[in-house]
Design brief:
Largest sheet: 4 strands, antiparallel
Number of strands: 22
Strand order of the largest sheet: 1-22-21-20
CATH architecture: 6 Propeller
Structural class: mainly beta
Oligomer: single chain
Shape: globular
Length: about 280
């Protein structure tokens, strides 16, 4: 082969090699990266304030509910609030004061959530693993019960069971006659456990829960434990703090199934708010 032909052949081979490398480089540059799916956003529950009522700023709210067209509130008594009491009673919406129906010894018990079921009132206590039972008309103490949960926080009912929170991500269903555990619901938000479930309210097939130390109320599907909606009440806290700087986080949800009203408040808030949102 002549020198010129050798030169041309080498040139062709070199060009082919360069083009091959460039092709591989292009291929490497155009490889698609895997797309990481984002967690679906929990729908925001938007609300409007319909009315406002006074609330006792000494009430360390642990439970709020309607029964027989009357608003009931239960309170606890932290050691740093000597004026607070562990009691429950009917709230006077003109004054915010509680007409006390039962009070427990705060040196022994810290009052938590209450609920009416089968003509009785059931009340939880914080760390005693003890609950109290009262006649739903006379409010006379007619007994007590125990539970295995280390703490008692919020309490509601679906009309069949007592449903209690204990500060974890679990809701415990109790038989109201023998207090055996019939179901444990693990609550999750976008697949992650949701801790600090506090005051509860059962509204039209869903459980609404305050989240301790926050101003969120979450809507929980009791069939799956999934959070399907979320409401931010921070603006109500900020407004409450302008009237009482000692106001703490949101706690207290009450639903009147007759009128459809929903009332919310918080610990040491000066106001109970009537809010409206899609139920």
């Amino acid at each position: 082969m002549s020198y010129k032909l050798k030169y041309v052949a080498c040139l062709i081979i070199s060009l082919a090699f360069i083009l091959s490398c460039e092709s591989d480089t292009i291929k490497e540059k155009t490889v698609e990266q895997p797309v990481v799916a984002e967690s679906p956003k929990i729908p925001e529950i938007k609300f409007t304030v319909q009315n406002q009522y006074p609330h006792d700023v000494n009430s360390f709210t642990e439970g709020l509910l309607f029964n027989d067209n009357k608003l009931f509130e239960s309170t606890g008594a932290p050691d740093n609030l000597p004026q607070a009491k562990s009691l429950f009673g009917i709230v006077d919406l003109k004054t915010g004061k509680i007409d006390v129906k039962a009070e427990i010894d705060k040196s022994i018990y810290f009052g938590e959530g209450i609920v009416f079921l089968n003509g009785k009132v059931f009340q939880l206590t914080y760390k005693n693993q003890t609950g109290f039972i009262y006649d739903g008309k006379t409010f006379k103490n007619i007994g007590q019960f125990t539970y295995a949960n280390r703490e008692g926080w919020g309490l509601t009912t679906d009309g069949k069971s007592l449903i209690m929170s204990d500060g974890t991500s679990y809701l415990t269903y109790l038989d109201p006659t023998n207090f055996s555990v019939t179901k444990i619901l693990d609550v999750a938000e976008n697949g992650y456990v949701l801790e600090h479930l506090n005051e509860l309210e059962f509204i039209k097939g869903y459980i609404y829960a305050n989240i301790w130390t926050t101003n969120y109320i979450v809507k929980i599907d009791p069939n799956t434990g999934d959070v399907v909606g979320k409401m931010d009440l921070s603006n109500l806290l900020y407004e409450s703090k302008t009237r009482n700087p000692n106001a703490l986080e949101t706690n207290g949800i009450a639903y009147d199934s007759v009128s459809g009203k929903v009332l919310v408040t918080g610990k040491l808030w000066p106001t109970i708010y009537e809010i409206k949102f899609p139920l």
